[in-house]
Amino acid sequence: MSAPKVYTANLERDVEVAEVQRTYNVEVIPGTEVMTDLGHVHFAQSEGKVLVPQPHNDPNDPLNWSKSWKQIVMVGQFLVAFVQAVGPLSIAPQTEFYMAEWNRSLSDVLQFTGVCILVFGFSNFIWVPIATKWGRRPALILSALTGIGACIWRARAQSYGSFMGACVVHGIAAGPSETLPPMLIADVMFLHERGFYMGMYMWAYFGAYELGPVIAGVMSERYGWRSFWWFNVAAYCVLTLYTVFLIPETKWNRGTAPGAVQDEHIFDEKSAEDSQNEVVMNQDALVSTMTNGEVQIEHKDEWIYKGKPSRGQFSFVSSSAIGYDRGILLSLWIPVKLFSFPIVEWASFVFSWSASNFLMLNLTESQAFQADPYNFTSEKIGYFNLAMFGGSTVGLLVAGPLSDYISMRATKKNHGIREPEMRLPTLIPFTVLLIVGALVSAFGYAGGWKWEIIVLIGYFFIGIQVAAIPAIATTYAIDSYKPVAGDFLVSATVNKNVWAYGLSKFLTDWVDKAGFVKPMATNMALCVFWILFAIPLFYYGKTVRRWTKDSNVHSL
Q1: Which of 17, 238, 363, 376 is most deeply packed, by most CB within 10 A?
Q2: What are the residues facing 296 on neighbouring strands?
Q3: In this structure, are residues 81 and 247 in contact, taking their beta carbons and an 8 Å threshold?
Q4: Cα–Cα distances in angstroms (integers) from residue 342 to residues 135, 139, 346, 423, 499, in the given order
Q5: What DSSP state is assigned to residue 533?
């Protein structure tokens, strides 16, 4: 008699992988997803779509929550992104007020933005470990309360140094806007739904950067610059109340510590060939049947879109969020380690330089439009940001659904096997818009073109790409390294914000010496340079993922 075959921990995953590789000769590595029933493997489905990840057969599993509860959480992630991001980059139309208040230069005043941006990214070395170890709610609530204090300090600051200190605290408070919303999306939404909601997140996040200057310009012109920060205090209070009462804990323990064994089942292959024994495994949402020596795997879930959060999931720290404790030191190390992963580094650079094209306009709009031949007021300059917001709205409506459509179509052609690289062709039209928008803005500033051309083409196109390109790049990286989605975003935002800090510190003097075209065209060219690496990644991205397939980040 042959030796018994041992199935451990993820029996269903082992059988799934074996079935895919046997049927289609496709290697299944982290990031590769099976989106169809295959042979003896039958997955939980909804509306004809295989659900990835597979939910537990539990009404409290966030993946099983009703559509109304999921939308409540999505509104919450929208508010987190918008409220926490609306203040820090709204300095541009207020610069003349701060220069007059404290008798400082334009370069000094723009440091309010630069310092806040720099702290933004590094603050997530605080918030992501909290969200990973104790859950999303503690991080959301504590950051919102910190934001209230920071904005009160900003509104009452009586000196340049005091206001700078408030900027630092505000940067710490606002850090979760760059990491927690994507974690909420990954917690409650299935893979085929995430493209749209990642676009919605980018729309809220960059929309806050675009609408913030509009609000700041109008309020500062009519009611004084301090009024804008009292507006931020009110917004943070609304966010705090919404979080406490309407955002349940979305972190769900879906596994055990790396290397641990869950349900071990030993089957004698010889005796199994002559028997028809049903084996029901002690795992949620899974029925395993042994028939004629073959394992039949069927995922069952009676709660899909019918569940709801429990009362315990509204606790400050919910037991549903407590699973394998990887420790604070490991949580601090993982974002650093991810910098060595080529896909993470590529997505971080694309995210950084796409966002910096928006930041270029944010930092130069007052410098360009308050001078000849325009001589516009702060209020009017603030309104120009509506064009970027309109562009971001178009990016939201187009990029997410287009990305999902392209990847789903490619999945069907690939026998129901999805690879993260299938999203990458969506970058093509938005890269064209990036080039046109950046060049129109740069040459428009330098040549004194009609403001309508600069704003309605340059600003609008930059708004479209800033909602689309980062969403596509970050979704690709998250699909490739799902267990460390939050840690990846720490890596990405640190990369983005260090570059943004450098821009804010040196851009004004660079423009004074070289004009607008060289800095803006250089930044655009660097962005396109990084985006072009999507071409080799489209063809060889799976090979790159294979280099890291045995990394412990996939089991965290």
Answers
A1: 363
A2: 289
A3: no
A4: 29, 29, 6, 17, 19
A5: T
**Global confidence as pTM:** 0.76
Q: Decide if 438 contacts 523 (C-beta within 8 A).
A: yes
Q: Where are the alpha helices (DSSP H) in 25-94?
A: 67-85
Identify whether the C-beta of residue 460 lies closer than 8 Å to the C-beta of residue 340.
no
Residue 222 structure tokens? 């009519």
Structure tokens at 384: 């120009």
For domain 65-253+326-555, the CATH class is: mainly alpha
How far apart CA 340 and CA 424 sit, in angstroms, is 21
Quickly list H helices, 159-300: 160-174, 180-188, 194-223, 225-246, 269-273
Q: How far apart are CA 319 and CA 317, in angstroms?
A: 7
In angstroms, rounded to a whole number, what is the distance separating the alpha carbons of residues 254 and 120?
A: 30
Say which residue the tokens 């909804």 belong to: 46
Read off the DSSP letter of residue 417. Answer: E
Spatial distance between the Cα atoms of 526 and 547, rounded to a whole number of angstroms:
26
From-to residues of CATH 1.20.1250.20 in the chain: 65-253+326-555
What is the three-state SS of 287-338?
EEEEECCEEEEECCCCCCCCECCCHHHHCCCCHHHCCCCCCHHHHHHHHHHH
**What whole-number distance in Å separates Cα of residue 488 and Cα of residue 474?**
9
Picking from 467, 508, 549, 545, the residue whose alpha carbon sits closest to that of residue 110 is 508
Beta bridge partners, 307, equal 65
Tokens coding 22? 């046997």
CA–CA separation, 52 vs 411, rounded Å?
A: 13
Residue linked to tokens 């699909």 = 479
Environment class of 139 (CB within 10 Å of its CB; exposed 0-12, middle 13-18, buried 19+)? buried
Distance in angstroms (rounded) separating the CA atoms of residues 10 and 255: 10
- Terminal Cα distance for the chain, rounded: 38
Q: What is the DSSP letter of 455?
A: I
Question: In this structure, is the dihedral angle defined by the CA atoms of residues 259, 260, 266 and 269, taken in order, positive or negative?
Answer: negative
Which element (helix H / strand E) includes 224? none
CA angle 110, 430, 501 (to 5 degrees): 20
